[in-house]
Amino acid sequence: MKLGGLLIPVFLIWLTWWLIDSGVPHLVAVRDNIEDFNIEEARELRHKYNANVNICKVEGDTMYVRTYERGVEDETLACGTGMVACFIRNHQEKKVSDQVKVHPKSGDELYVSYENGIYRFGGKVTKTFIAETIE
Q1: Structural domain of 71
Q2: Which of 80, 65, 79 lies closest to 119, judged by CA?
Q3: Best exposed site among 4, 18, 45, 113 by fewest CB in 10 Å?
Q4: What is the distance between the alpha carbons of residues 20 and 4, in angstroms, rounded to a whole number?
């Protein structure tokens, strides 16, 4: 996906967040520890900025991401545009290379990369259910 690269810093007393549009607006904060994800704070930020809220950390060639998502109004197991937004921020700060493994809360191993101005996102596809309509 090609993106406009909109990055707007949002300075709060305790942390700097970045508003990044990766197809959907996301607030992104890079932290050393993402175990404590304050859902109430995420909910307030989501409503104030009308954006999904992500915290992430980088360990070597792997990025870990947690997301509070609009519409769901809670933390989700994974958000593709959120992982891309976190990658954009870390990539611009040179904290990650052009391709990284990404682990959302679900524990799945996914990949985000940047090549020739294009961001790519991928991972293993698993069939989880079959839906049928009743006539």
Answers
A1: 7-123
A2: 80
A3: 4
A4: 9
CATH number at residue 31: 3.10.310.10
Quote the CA–CA distance of 70 and 3 in Å, as a whole number: 20
Say how far apart CA 8 and CA 21 lie, in whole Å.
9
The reported pTM is: 0.84
Q: What would the pLDDT profile of 93-105 be if each residue is shown by its tens digit?
A: 999 999 999 999 9
Pairwise CA distance, residues 118 & 79, whole Å: 19
CA 129 to chain centre: 25
- Per-residue model confidence as pLDDT tens digits over 39-53: 999 999 999 999 999
130 domain residue, yes or no: no
Query: How high is the pLDDT of residue 1?
Result: 39
Contact of 92 with 98, CB cutoff 8 Å: no
CA distance 126 to 108: 11
Residue 132 lies in a domain: no
Domain count, the chain: 1
